[in-house]
């Protein structure tokens, strides 16, 4: 069984992330969407809130893709987590050239750390190219509508966080 990890901060999960999950689920037997606990960002949502948002958001995927997708969190090195989960691949989304340098560095470092784990880059639909979680947070904070970018539950939780 080919298992892939899709790691990230998902603060919050967007339709751009869901697009990547869908593409990954069309290739691999199992996808583990893994929220990193130890990234240096100062998150808006707790890990538990993000896990719940991801579980609810993946319900919007095709049933067969939803059933292939598991949601988890991890602490420590991503490649060690991947080995513990018997994964053969790490999935990363590439939205634009600006993502490339950082992703290239991470992929090469992960390969140095664990040669057997392959990084696979997937391109989300171009309509999500401009999307990231901070821009979504900012739009809500400034009173804008994010219903085209995140699931209804995430939109509602964002509004509640910002008192909108
Ligand atoms: N659609 C929309 N937005 C996307 C996206 C997509 N398809 N892909 C990435 N993004 C956005 C995210 O929302 C995030 O936005 P933000 O910065 O505004 O919040 C940004 O792009 C990058 O986030 P993400 O993909 O979640 O990556 P990250 O940089 O936050 O997390 C980890 C990177 C968790 C994978 C990395 O830090 C890691 O592996 N940590 C574990 C420790 C480790 O092993 N370190 C050594 C690594 S070599």
Number of helices: 7
Number of separate structural domains? 1
Q: Give the uncertain stretches in residue-range form.
A: none
Main beta sheet: 5 strands, parallel
> Hetero groups bound?
coenzyme A
**Beta strand count:** 5
Radius of gyration: 15 Å
CATH structural fold name = Rossmann fold
- SS-derived structural category: alpha/beta
Average pLDDT, rounded to a whole number, is: 96
Q: What is the second-level CATH architecture?
A: 3-Layer(aba) Sandwich
Order of helices and strands: EHEHHEHEHEHH
Strand content: 15-25%
Spatial shape: globular
**Tell me, what is the CATH class?**
Alpha Beta
CATH superfamily: HUPs
Distance between the termini: 45 Å
Helix content: 40-55%
The order of strands across the largest sheet is 3-2-1-4-5
Write the topology of this structure.
Layout: E1 3-8, H1 15-25, E2 30-36, H2 47-57, H3 63-68, E3 69-74, H4 78-84, E4 89-93, H5 97-113, E5 118-122, H6 133-141, H7 152-161
Bound molecules: coenzyme A.
Describe this structure in words.
There is one protein chain. This protein is α/β, with parallel strands linked by helices and 164 residues long. The protein has one domain (3-126): Rossmann fold (3-Layer(aba) Sandwich). Helices cover 43% and strands 18% of the residues. It is globular, with a radius of gyration of 15 Å. The chain starts with a strand and ends with a helix. The mean pLDDT is 96. Bound molecules: coenzyme A. Residues 7-11, 14, 16-17, 20, 36, 39, 77-78, 93, 95, 106, 109-110, 124, 128, 131-134 line the site of coenzyme A.
